[in-house]
C-alpha cells in the first residue's frame, strides 16, 4: 500500500498521552522469579494500558520452568511488561517488568540499562529464587527495595525473619504487599522513591 503525505496515522489515546506538565521521568524495573506477580503489579498500577508480552505456557516448559506455587498460571512473560505512573504532575515513572524464567534472564541486561532503581518481588513459597535476582542487581549497582507479595497459600513470616532469610542489608526496605491492589503497588513504588531519595541525600546515588 502506498503512503501519501495526506494520510494520517492514529496517535495515542487521550488517556495515554504524556501530561504536558511532565518535566522528568525515571525508569524502574520490576524483577523477581517466575510467577511472583511482576505482570500483575505493572497492570494494577499503570495509568496507561500496559504493554505485555505474555504467551501461553506449553508442554515445552515442563521440567524447564520452576512453576512451584504457580500451578494455575497459564501464560508467562517472554520479553517484558511496560507501564507508566505519575508520581506528581512533573514526574513520571516508566515501569519495565522482567521475564521470570531463568532461560529469559539474558534479556535482563538490556532492561536494567538506565534504570534508576528496582522493585524485587518475593514469594515466600520460593525464597531461594530471589537470591540470584538480588545478586544481579547488586552486581550492576541498581538500588532496590523488596516487596513480599502475599499469596493466599503462602507462609507468613515476620519481616525481621524474612530479612535474615534473604540475607538483606539492613538499609534496604522490605515490605509486605498485594500487587493485585493498585494502592499496594503504588505504595511499594513510593517506598522505592523514598529509598532512592535517602541514597541521593547521602551521596550514595550517582
Indicate the topology.
Blueprint: E1 24-32, H1 38-45, E2 54-56, E3 75-77, E4 81-86, E5 91-97, H2 108-112, E6 117-122, H3 129-140, E7 144-149, H4 159-165, E8 174-177, H5 182-201
Question: Overview of this structure, please?
Answer:
The chain has 206 residues and is α/β, with parallel strands linked by helices. The chain has helices at residues 38-45, 108-112, 129-140, 159-165, 182-201, and strands at 24-32, 54-56, 75-77, 81-86, 91-97, 117-122, 144-149, 174-177. The strands form two sheets. A six-stranded mixed β-sheet has the order 4-5-1-6-7-8. β4 and β5 (91-97) form a beta hairpin. α1 (38-45) crosses α5. The termini are far apart. The model is unreliable at 55-65 (pLDDT under 50).
Our measurement of the CA-to-CA distance between the termini, rounded to an integer number of angstroms, reads 49 Å
User: Which series of helices and strands comes N to C?
Assistant: EHEEEEHEHEHEH
Shape: globular
Task: Give the strand tally.
Answer: 8
Low-confidence runs: 55-65
Biggest sheet: strands, sense, closure?
Answer: 6 strands, mixed
Radius of gyration: 18 Å
The helix fraction, in percent, is 25-40%
Number of continuous helical runs? 5
Strand content: 15-25%
Average pLDDT, rounded to a whole number, is: 82
Q: What structural class do the secondary elements suggest?
A: alpha/beta
Assembly state of the chains shown:
single chain
Trace the largest sheet across and list its strands.
4-5-1-6-7-8
